[in-house]
Design a protein that fits this description.
The protein has ten helices and twelve strands. α1 links the parallel β1 and β2.
């Protein structure tokens, strides 16, 4: 089944070129099928790249999915053309009376700041209140996950000695959770962050189940017991060259950065063999199936 996005959004051409079934909104409106409504609150500075990555993962499903892109009003980044934001993004106030089957709240490069000092923190808090009543299940990614764990459960992030940067092996802590169905006993996820939430800190929230992680990176995949909150500490949505771009960016800025771990396959740092993409597709498909589609009411007003 198709992913439904505007025909003139950059992701449409990119994904169609990958033989992903994308459908423009006009064609979708003629079909007598209720699509799954997914909102993406995109807090990343590279909005076009991030929206394409997430839409690609959502497309790997037999469901018809309609995507609404959402941005913050209290802060507008400078890395995305304003005309793109005006054309394809809605503000929270434009969607706050709607209900969604699922929502994704991305990370943001602000993890070294106290939460309350982030310019759009009050607006994000309003959105996190909104998802409790208006969204069946929400994925929180990286800093977005840390922000949600802090806001909902009072948990605190801690600074790392150096940036956690690379592609890391994970092991399952539970064998039968639907979110990890079909994944291997060991699987890989990219990480790029300066802060973390420890297992000891997460254990303070009895509503949270940690599903996967490792000693090296700590907890990485978790959810609330009711499945309405999903927490990804890493970036399984990343493209094969995203870490390479981040590494080269930090080098240009003169920042202290080591090559991403377990990522480059040659001394020249040119060969990349992505080993996380099948896991990413599996987990996002599982989320859509088990935590959205199978439990969301047909009438979204009942969420």
């Amino acid at each position: 089944m198709p992913i439904i996005i505007p025909q003139d959004i950059p992701a449409y051409t990119t994904l169609a070129g990958e033989n992903i079934f994308v459908m423009h909104e006009g064609r979708a409106a003629t079909q007598d099928i209720r699509p799954i409504e997914i909102a993406i609150l995109n807090l990343m500075p590279t909005k076009i790249e991030t929206e394409t990555q997430l839409i690609r993962l959502l497309s790997n499903s037999p469901l018809q999915i309609h995507v609404t892109l959402v941005g913050t009003e209290s802060y507008v980044g400078k890395n995305t053309p304003l005309q793109h934001l005006q054309r394809f993004y809605k503000t929270f106030h434009e969607i706050k009376h709607q209900r969604f089957d699922g929502m994704i709240i991305t990370g943001a490069p602000v993890e070294q700041m106290p939460f309350e000092e982030v310019k759009y923190w009050p607006e994000l808090c309003e959105i996190m209140d909104f998802v409790k009543t208006n969204v069946q299940s929400t994925i929180f990614i990286c800093w977005g996950a840390q922000a949600a764990l802090h806001y909902y459960y009072g948990l605190e992030k801690i600074d790392l000695d150096k940036k956690l940067f690379g592609v890391f092996p994970h092991r399952k802590y539970t064998q039968f959770d639907p979110l990890l169905k079909g994944t291997d006993e060991e699987f890989f996820i990219p990480h790029s962050r300066h802060t973390t939430m420890t297992a000891a800190e997460l254990s303070k929230a009895k509503e949270i189940i940690v599903l996967a992680g490792s000693e090296e990176i700590g907890p990485s995949v978790a959810r609330s017991r009711d499945g309405r909150q999903i927490f990804f500490m890493g970036h399984m949505e990343y493209d094969r060259d995203t870490l390479k771009k981040e590494y080269e960016r930090d080098l240009r800025k003169g920042l202290p950065i080591e090559p991403p771990k377990n990522y480059f396959r040659d001394v020249a740092k040119t060969l990349i063999l992505p080993n996380w993409m099948s896991t990413a597709n599996m987990i996002y498909s599982n989320w859509l199936n088990y935590y959205v589609y199978q439990v969301t009411p047909y009438n979204r007003d009942e969420i």
